[in-house]
RNA sequence: GGAGAGGUGGGUGAGUGGCUGAAACCAACAGUUUGCUAAACUGUCGUACCUAAUUACGGGUACCGGGGGUUCGAAUCCCCCCCUCUCCGCCA
């Protein structure tokens, strides 16, 4: 969430920038939260004064008891009764105000970076780069779901039986290809300085809150009701939460982590061609990279991460484009996001395979990840993350783009991992 | 799942109702000493919020796993929850 002090000092900017995100109630909400904060301050002062008085009296009473002046002590005790009542009242008022502030702050999205343009949605995103050649496939080229059946490498019907739609079973070379991609991505991330971690696949409420999945995206997660756990929609959640409530050293920057995890998403409201085959699944594999750095260096890190993702796609030989998300499409918690989309040549569609974002201090404020700056002051860190990469759509593009009449050619960089160079 | 023990500042660890925001030690930082290193000595050494002030000397409040209670007063007593350890049970 946004820092209240920042909002107070940059009120107009915040309102203007929230407008870019099409956040309708920006002006009211910001004014309301500042008004509530003023109320909070006076209530706080009030409460502190009452407590000061109580503390003084308590000391006096203690002293009187020691001197054996019982009756005087009893007299003072009477005085504390009214104070305690006041304290209770003011305390309740304060607690309510604080709760209101928190609820309101949680409902206000992050403000977008200066480079983020206004826009309604996907259609207003800006393509900033396009790399690679779009392959010329013959007219009878098959979409990946048909290739999966033809070579018996991914079985959607089997998954339907075992669990339901969106939970495919990978078989034979399909399963091996998955494993190869995961290892390739992890090795590349390690080479670029990301320490590998294996996080839990379920998280508690606090973790989901800290990275911003809760409260507003609860419907996108699978919930384990008995234990109040959430299946992770991305490794971003557990990996970023590694740093929750910690103070890191400036000399540790940039902190880089990578993790392979399976991701679980309910994808409520998706339909049609979007969910065909591997295009949108409820369970999928992904390697995630996470970075934590100081506010002065976070945007450099964003570039470094974009470079990492670009290199992966270049190695795989997939044509891709980098898209800067507009205000209408960027996520609630992000300040700046670049999507990477590969061209899936048989479907003739661009598929999002990575999303690289700088959250600035928005997540860090909930996470309480801080560092001490040069003046010894506590500062919130900036957090960033990106997919590197999400598997299913990569697989879809690989299958479609590399299909030949003899089978599907495996890109060179993967052969050391798959130990085969064609799927037939 | 059952029984017991325990959770204190960056770390170790003292503290069972007021003199404890918290001893001591270690680490860290600054300084003195020194040809250099080490040692020794001196000082600093939590966070958040409120308030005063305004670029610097303050005052107050809260926080000893989390929440609630008893009390004039709680790290200390009581209740609930979470976590860790030991033993038993179960199990990959």
Structural features, described:
Strands 1-11-12-13-16-10-9-4 form an eight-stranded mixed beta sheet. The chain has a three-stranded antiparallel beta sheet with strand order 5-7-6. The radius of gyration is 27 Å and the shape is elongated. The mean pLDDT is 92. Helix content is 43%, strand content 21%. The chain has 13 helices and 19 strands. The protein has two domains: 4-107, Helix Hairpins; 122-423, BirA Bifunctional Protein, domain 2 (2-Layer Sandwich). It is α+β, with helices and mostly antiparallel strands and 424 residues long. It binds one RNA strand of 92 nucleotides through α3 and α4.
Helix and strand topology:
Blueprint (H helix, E strand, L loop, with lengths): L3 H6 L1 H10 L5 H41 L3 H38 L18 E6 L12 H8 L2 E2 H7 L6 E2 L1 H20 L3 E3 L4 E2 L1 H6 L12 E2 L4 E3 L4 H6 L4 E3 L6 E10 L18 E11 L4 H19 L3 E5 L11 E9 L4 E10 L3 H6 L1 E4 L5 E3 L1 E9 H11 L1 E2 L2 E3 L5 H4 L3 E2 L1
Parallel strand pairs: 4-9, 8-14
Antiparallel strand pairs: 1-11, 2-3, 5-7, 6-7, 9-10, 10-16, 11-12, 12-13, 13-16, 14-15, 17-18, 18-19
This protein binds one RNA strand of 92 nucleotides through helix 3 and helix 4.
